[in-house]
Each structure stands twice: as structure tokens, then as C-alpha cells.
Batch of 4 targets.
Target 1
Amino acid sequence: RVYCSGVLTISLLLAAVVGAVVPSLVLVTDDRTGGLSLDFHAASCPQLEGIVRGAVQAERGQDVQVTAGLLRIFFHDCLPQGCDASILLDGEKTFGPNASLQPRALQLIESIRAKVHAVCGATVSCADIIALATRDAVSLAGGPSIAMPQGR
């Protein structure tokens, strides 16, 4: 179920990066999203969106290529079996095409995870952090503004 939602999200983010005209979108929660919701972390980590966006914005100020790096991490994580943050496992990061993932983007995800967990505890999954960081990077690069379902 999450696989289908991930494929749709990846398609939208890729369209934004390659310059396709995509209006602002809201991905709605229904039976195809596997129980994801737009307000999944509203009570457990209300600061989540601000922490992620602030960190991505600061990193993009240093290196705009981090957008491409995050998008590639998101793509490699979500296909073929759904978004689960397995791409962050040491064995996965060095396997085949994953070995050339952008180290700066991987460090950004780890930095965001540490900040979020310091503020909210371990309530937010790394898969959600990857998805939100990628969404924010694409939006900051001029792509669409997507309401990203959470709860991976």
C-alpha cells in the first residue's frame, strides 16, 4: 500500500525537478495510503515540519545540489518495496547504485533525525524524515508544494 503512495509521490517530485508544470498538490489520505495521514505527528512532534524545513533550507543555502541528493535517496529508498528508510542501513548505503548516493544529503538526513529525536523523542520515523526533507528541498527549489502524508 505504501508502495503505491510512494510511487505517486516520487513521480510528482521527479516531475517538479525536471521542470514539468505541476500545480500545488495535496495527497489525500484514503485506503491506498496504508494508514498515512497529513497530521500523523501533530501531537507527538508539532515542531517536526519546522525542524525539517529549517535544516533543509540551511543546507540548500550551502549547497543547492543537496536537492538532487535527497531526491535520489528518496527514490532509492521507496522503490521497489516502499518507503522504509532501509537506505540508511550501512549495508544498503554501500550496495550497488546506492554507493554513489550523495554523502552530504545522507548527513543531512542524519542531522535532521538527531534534531527531531532530541526535541520529540524517537517518535518520527526516518522514512518520514526522508520524505519530508525531500518534499521541502523540491519545494525550495521551485517545485510544487506537496502536503506529504506521514506515518511510515
Target 2
Amino acid sequence: MKKFMKEWGLFIFIFAVIGLSRLFLWQFVRVDGHSMDPTLANNERLLVLSHTSIDRSDIVVASEEEDGKKKIIVKRVIGLPGDTISYKNDVLKVNGKVVKEPYLETYQKLFKKDKLQSTYSYNALFQGLAEKATAFTTDANGSADFTITVPKGQYYLLGDDRIVSRDSREVGTFKKKDIIGEVKFRIWPFNRIGTVQ
């Protein structure tokens, strides 16, 4: 036994530390869908850290219920507990102050150019949604001018591809317990490996 522990003890210890940290501190998640385009693409693999503080503009993984089943989603934090969020013609205000959203610039320009018809050429449903949209960010009823106050202890999450994202505009705010962790690193595909902003 002594010989075994001398030869394998360090390996077993490292394996146990990795296993326990995987259980409580981090996990891998796959992006499912196009709601975070172009920041994150469908099928990309991400490293998610649990137990981090949640700030505005962070990309997080959350759990939601859809048709009675739990589903893992990746979205961006727009509103913190108690915030008043308002949009008017694609300008975000948080508690009365304008907040820039540089991660939306690419798709906002394409929306102004041709309502994303070229970008969404792979999906007729997306083209239809974009064609009807009055702005890049609208509420669930299609209004480009809307305001919401985030309840205490909850978070307002939106996808970066606002035209096709199913998020807090439709399903409501998310409780802290529903947020699994913060996306920190893209691990696949290899040509896009690196930190996520």
C-alpha cells in the first residue's frame, strides 16, 4: 500500500482536486442556438465559473423552465436587482443614465442596413422577425419604447441577438438561484479560443 501511494498518491490527489472543483466551482456548457450571436455562436463550448459576483454586462448561464423541463441558457445581464431598465429606439438607460452596449454594434448596423436580411439568410423565420421589428431591441409586444423595474433579488437577462433571443422580455426576470455562473472562457472552436467579453 505504501508503495502504491508513493507512486500514485500525487496523481490521485490531483484527480480528486480537479473532480471536486469541477463539482462546485466550474463546469463546461455548450451554446444552444443563435440568441448570443455574434458574441457567442451556436455549439461553442464555454467554461463557466460558479460563485462569482454578478455585474451588469456579464455573460451568465442560467436555468429556466420551458414546457415543464429545465433548460440551460446563456444570456447577458442587463439589469441588477432594483434597477429600472428602459429602452427607447435602441438606447439603453439604467436608472435614468444612458449605458452603451458595444457588443450590439455589429448587428445594430446590419439591422439599419437591411434589417438583417443578409445575416439571417440561413433562416426564413429569423428574417421574418427582423422584417417586422421596429428596432433591434423591442419588448415582447414589439414596442421599441419600454421600461421595467427589476425586482429585488432578481436579474434581467437578454441575448445579444435581440431579434431572435427568448429572454427576460418573454420569460421574466431570473432569481439569483437560477443563475449557474459566469461565462469566463471559450474553449471551442480552437480558432476562437480565449476569454469572453
Target 3
Amino acid sequence: MSILQDIKDAFRQPNNTLKQLILINVIVFVVLIVMRLLLTFTVGPGAYNYLMSFIALHSDMGTFITRPWTLITYFFTHQGFLHIIFNMLNLYWFGQLIREYLGDRKLLSLYVIGGIAGGVLYMLSYNFIPYFEDRAASSVMIGASASVLAIVVAAATLLPNYTFNLILIGPVRIKYIALFLVILSISGAVGDNAGGNIAHLGGALIGWLFIKQLQRGNDMGRPMHAFFDFITGLFKRRPKLKVTHRRTTTFTGKANGSTTTVAGKPSQKEIDLILDKISSSGYESLSKEEKQKLFQASQKE
């Protein structure tokens, strides 16, 4: 099977958001490498820089107004192997946790909202903080770090005592990994990559806020998914109407103080209680029934 066919299959499979996000980043990275080579050898390096100006996020508000799509494209764009490798590894490791416990839609919400928040904080800082005044006209930003850090902090907020085995270090709880990355971004907010580190902090804030709001029953990604569902619905074929007559019976009852349905799908109250238990005692403390309810909730959306 060809590489192209593998890519097509990855985008056709349902509930495959993590792999799709990684693939998009890798494909953009490879395409830009090829474009840089071709443009440099044929037209000159200036042509590639001009192309990047339509993808990277500009700190200058006047430029951004003419290219608003860059608030999205910048967090799918990388230059340098270490840059994309580090981001994609963190996206895979921590994204697996979000995907397993909260589902693909929550993972997509965190990635997109975290990237947007990082980009907005970057532009606001460069335009309203005097320290960055000299850089505002020429600074541009690319990279998925803000999106990835949103996912890292979200996973650490949801499962603070979950442990990763790090090479040469051993088992480390992910709350300490997230804390280290946040402190690293704070320390770099006055360095050469100040704009990027400020964006990281915007993503980290969204990751923490997203989980805290979710535990209170508020899904910050709901408006985004409503928009996506509307757009995709425009391109879906409407099925032919079939008129059938059948008798239906609806039953609702209460179990353990929470409303359930005959389909067995857990209520929001049940999910909130399970998330609180994970936050305080870890995923391992859940019963088999609670794990099943969490899985059903992730499939509901």
C-alpha cells in the first residue's frame, strides 16, 4: 500500500483526530521543505520568505488584518526538524491521554483554541507592552507549541498523578512535566524567542481553563464544533426520506441520584463526578463501570 493511500485512510477513519493532526503538521513541513528548495534554486530565497508571510502569524496588526487566516495556519507550520519532532512527540504522548479520557472532539478543541489563544496573546503583547515595541513591526511566529502546551497542561490538570517513564530519569508525574514546560516558557519570555514563549503561556492557560470549565459542566469547544458541524453538513448528501411507522417506548429513571436513559449513556452529572475522582485519585481509582461510562461519554460526541 502506498504512502498516499495510508494518508487517505488516516483521514477517512472516524475518531482519528490525533493521527490526523500529526499528519497535517508533517505534510505541511515536508511541502515547505520542497517549496523552499525549489523557490531558492529557481527564483531566489526572497520568494520563499514571501510565501511564508502568508502562513506565519505577524505581530503587526495592520498586516494581520489583511491575512487573518494566519491565526490558524501558523500552528500547523514548522521550520527545523527539532522544532517539529519535539512538538509532535508531546502532542502524541499527551494527546493520547486527552483522546482516551475525553474523546477526539475535546482533543481537537484544545489544539485549535490553545493555538488561537497563544496567537492572540502574542499579538497583544507585541502591540501593547513597551518592551516589545521595537520588534512589533517585523516579528512573525510559527509552530504548534501553544496548541501542544494547551494539551499538555490539560492532561496534567485532568490526570495530575499520571506517570510517564522518561529516559535517564525514570517515572515522573505529568503535573511536574507540565510545570517544567510552563516555567521554561516564562523564563524565555524575555529572550530571543519571546513571542513564541508568550504564545506558549496563552496555550497553557487555555489547557488549564478548559479542564476546569469541563469539570463544571461547561465545554469551551462547543461553539467551535457547532461551526464545524455546520460547515461539514453543507457538503454532506442528504439521505432520501423514508416514512416508517413504528412504536417507540421511552424510559427514564434514576440510578445513584443521576438521570440515565435506556441506552445507558451517562449524564453530565455522572461524568463530572468521574472527572473529579480522576483529578483527586487518578484514573486507576475508577471502577470498571465508571471507566465504561467515561468511554461512552467520549463516543457520545
Target 4
Amino acid sequence: MHELAIAENIVDTVCTRAAGRPVRRVILRIGALTAVLPDTMRFCFELAATGTAAHGAALDLDLRPAVVFCRVCRSERRLPDLIPLCPCGSADVTVTTGRELDIVAMEVA
């Protein structure tokens, strides 16, 4: 469950940025290829935030699909699963979205 380590890092970051003010809301952008499970992330965030300035903060997740650009068929395609292969069968792809794991915004009191 790598989500706990990620959640602890996020809580540390937002609490540092909040400079002692209560954190009310955190927005994360999470790509499908990060293998972060949304429900597990919410649970771990709540656990990591306990006793911190982020205690009770809402966690909003902006989930991004995995998208690749195929150099063979020259098209951008959404991946149906986590294997970076173009539906045309080519493995000559560049991932354009799906690897994000970013704190997009936070709201403080």
C-alpha cells in the first residue's frame, strides 16, 4: 500500500505550506498509470492527516486516464488498461497523460 507513504508526503507538504493555518481542502491530480487507488488514497490521507493542520480536510481527486501517442499509426489513444500499448498493437508509444501525481491546489482557513 504505497498510498500511505504518498499521503504522508502530501500532508507534510500542505501543512508546511499552510504555515500553521488549518487546511480545509486538498486537490490532487492522479494519473491512471500511478497505480494509486482512489479509495485507498482517501483512507490513507485521512489517516496521515490525523493530528495535523490537515485533520478533517476534504480530499478531491482529479483522476486522469492513461493516454499514449503512437509513432506507428500517428494517433493519440486512451489506453483501455495499464499496459502502454497502442490499440493498433504497437509498443512504440509515448505516454502523454496518466503519470501525474500532483498537488493541484489547497484551501486553508
